[in-house]
Design a protein that fits this description.
Largest sheet: 2 strands, antiparallel
Strand content: 5-15%
Radius of gyration: 26 Å
Helix content: over 70%
Order of helices and strands: EHHEEHHHHHEHH
Distance between the termini: 12 Å
Number of domains: 2
């Protein structure tokens, strides 16, 4: 009996594969284009939401890092509103979680759109995307290349360098904010801290840890085996049962179990 090769996939890749597979099975080419249009609308919503959250996160983290006081006072017209620093730290932690989830959702939906575009136009999938989203045209010269011309190693290097130089500053800023908020949470566990401060600090740390744990869990590749029993006896048999006969390899399947 031939052994099936084990696959290594992450949870994010499995989810993405299942969603794309469902789209591919139920949609025609024209319906796929309509779906891509809707996905681009959702992508734009996520991007706008992400930008607003990033601005709020940066401002709140700067606010926290720039003061050593236990409370922060905001002057609104003729009134002074005082916020405990622990509450502002909690808000920053919640913003970090929301920023992470929007980034994850953005990447997920962007890859789904890419797979759908390849399904429609394998030779030049980016051509479809340009009609719906022109905000990323600045990067097209590094990725779109005529298929009848040889792509050199130097061009590949420039493509990788372009991605690296674009993402590195964003990555550094987010990591710096993450570490800064985490340190501020730890600082709340002092001798003079009140119970409410400890509760807020613990909750903030849990929010921050969730971001890291979720990213690790969704990125780790697990060994995955095909469920041959389900494929043979449920999936294939149910398909052939509609025509009133058993699959041709039923006898081989039975013998392989002996």
């Amino acid at each position: 009996m031939r052994k099936t090769k084990d696959l290594k996939l992450s949870l994010a890749e499995l989810a993405q594969h299942q969603i794309f597979r469902s789209f591919r099975e139920m949609l025609s080419k024209s319906k796929s284009i309509e779906l891509i249009s809707k996905l681009y609308i959702e992508k734009e919503k996520i991007k706008n939401h992400q930008q607003n959250l990033l601005v709020a996160l940066v401002l709140s983290s700067i606010w926290i890092a720039s003061t050593d006081l236990n409370s922060i006072t905001i002057k609104i017209n003729y009134f002074n509103v005082e916020f405990k620093k622990s509450y502002v730290i909690f808000v920053s932690s919640a913003l970090m979680l929301l920023v992470y989830t929007t980034i994850f959702s953005f990447i997920f939906i962007d890859r789904t759109i890419g797979n759908m575009q390849k399904l429609i136009n394998k030779s030049d999938p980016l051509a479809i995307g340009i009609a719906y989203d022109s905000s990323a045209l600045w990067g097209v010269p590094f990725y779109v290349y005529p298929k009848f011309f040889e792509r050199t190693k130097f061009i590949n290097f420039l493509s990788i360098l372009n991605i690296f130089l674009f993402l590195l500053p964003i990555f550094i800023i987010l990591i710096s904010i993450y570490i800064s908020i985490f340190i501020q949470c730890i600082s709340l566990f002092g001798k003079k801290s009140q119970l409410i401060d400890l509760i807020v600090a613990s909750s903030s740390i849990l929010l921050l840890l969730y971001c890291a744990v979720h990213w690790v869990v969704c990125s780790i590749k697990f060994k995955i085996k095909k469920d041959t029993n389900f494929i043979r006896w449920i999936f294939l048999c149910s398909i052939n049962a509609k025509d009133g006969f058993w699959p041709k390899r039923v006898e081989f399947w039975i013998d392989s179990k002996k």
